[in-house]
What does this fold into?
Amino acid sequence: MAVLRSSSEDDVAAIAAIYAHHVLHGTGSFETEPPEVEEMRRRWAELVGRGFPYLVAEDEAGIAGYAYAGPYRTRPAYRETVENSIYLRPDAMGRGLGRRLLDALVSESEARGFRQMVAVVGDSGNVASIRLHEHAGFRLVGALRSVGFKHGRWLDTVLLQRALGAGDASPPIAR
It folds into this structure.
């Protein structure tokens, strides 16, 4: 069984390899060229340095997947809302690992005082990701039709959202 833990800089090369596969072969990311390891390291350091959770799942073969929360938008009024990302190694899919990572990410985000989590799922045909989020308490809030073009076709983004902690029941705690 995979162990979940906070990521470290030593994990970035494996994270980059997992992401590269999804960029090249999937529609969950709208990037069309995989970022180099150094760019992934920069992104990782930016998020971790700002106090966002960044988790990995490690099994006997190495890093099996990762999940992180980052800013939903950059304007100050959005500071209590995070956007999540989850990617798995292809051979690690379908074993419940995505759900474990998402549940842990939600818990870590709540512990850090965030109040809303948004999932921006690439491709309305990405039913596995949509169902994963729904089973973790996210609700479908909308879709943006044909906003990306990749692999020769137009792609939607599906928006899902869930409250964290007290959600909008009280004002945020000053950071």
